[in-house]
Amino acid sequence: MERSEFNQFFTKDLTVKNLTMEEIELVFEAVDMNKDGLLSVNEFCLCLEGVQQSFEQRLRAFDPDLEKCLKDDINTLFDFFDTNKDNKITIDELQLALKSQNSLITQFEIEQIMKQGDRDMNNYIDRKEFIEILLPQMKSEILSN
Ligand SMILES: [Ca+2]
Ligand SMILES: [Ca+2]
Fold first, then answer.
1. Taking CA 73 as the corner, what is the angle to CA 69 and CA 77, rounded to the nearest 5 degrees?
2. pTM of this prediction?
3. How far is the CA of 111 from the centre of ligand 1 (A)?
4. The domain 64-144: what is its CATH number?
5. Cα-to-centroid distance, 104 and ligand 2 (Å)
6. Residue 56 near residue 135 (C-beta atoms within 8 A)
7. Sign of the dihedral through C-alpha 24, 30, 36, 42
8. Ligand in nearest proximity to the CA of 86
9. Closest ligand to Cα 123
């Protein structure tokens, strides 16, 4: 996924008007680990992997306003994935959302992402799990800059 596609994903496909370009950039930077301006499946998986211990201390002192802003972004992303709006992301919804962005993604890769995201193993990713996965990742990315 290229940066421009990612931006489009938020501004056009998602029809979200309350996100600023800066916030979108922030999300992209957080996910694009190797800074090549492209999102790979690996980066998406990594982004789902969760907390890095070394950042925990600094995370506690994290600006609550920025945290709220990040949570809003993650909630927006969750709503995009949760197509039937039942506050659960099933493997089918995950597949649909990811395939719309990357038609080459395999079933195996989608299952891996699901496995990492579904922490209580009830076969769907709820809003809390989604935030738990993405928030620490985005925070640590900001703190490391
Ligand atoms: Ca759903
Ligand atoms: Ca779950």
1. 165
2. 0.56
3. 16
4. 1.10.238.10
5. 26
6. no
7. negative
8. 1
9. 2
